[in-house]
Amino acid sequence: MSEDQSNIVTLKVRVTPEFREKIVETAKTNNRSMNQEIVARLEESFDNKDIGQEFFQKNLHLFLSAYCAGLESNYDDAISQLEESLSQTKNPEMIQFLEHRLQVNKILKTEMHRLMKNNSEKFSAELSKEVSQKHLTHPHLAKDKPLTPIKDEDIG
């Protein structure tokens, strides 16, 4: 070991025999000692702790767009079914109920569309800001073709 031994502490870990065997096999595969394998895996887990969060943040726009598009489609279906039911119903109480449900679904669809639009505009603004910052820090990128933001129409 090239590390200063005075800066190293011993850590005892309890594992099942099967788990120990996995570590032994993986260490052999990676040409490392068991200790080196365990330390490498632990270091990697700390280094990569934000990858899931970073991936989620960078793709939040796409997740929201897909989710909102699905909900908007559900509202379209509900509106169609309610309109069909209204055209076939004679009962005044049922008509009143269906008209109310129809209005609620139309409002929800409108709000969902507004959320999709806001999400798209926010994403476009963030993308433009990110591209501008890259051009400031990497002027040679300015010669490249600019990125085209994704529009709601491209997703739905």
UniProtKB/TrEMBL annotation:
Segments of this protein annotated with the region Disordered: 126-156
Q: Which GO terms describe its molecular function?
A: DNA binding
Q: What InterPro entries does the annotation carry?
A: Arc_DNA-bd_dom (IPR005569), Arc_rbn_hlx_hlx (IPR013321), Ribbon_hlx_hlx (IPR010985)
Which stretches are tagged as biased composition: Basic and acidic residues?
141-156
Q: What is one GO biological process annotated to this record?
A: regulation of DNA-templated transcription
| Arc-like DNA binding domain span | 13-47
Name it.
Arc-like DNA binding domain-containing protein
From which organism does this entry originate?
Answer: Acinetobacter lwoffii
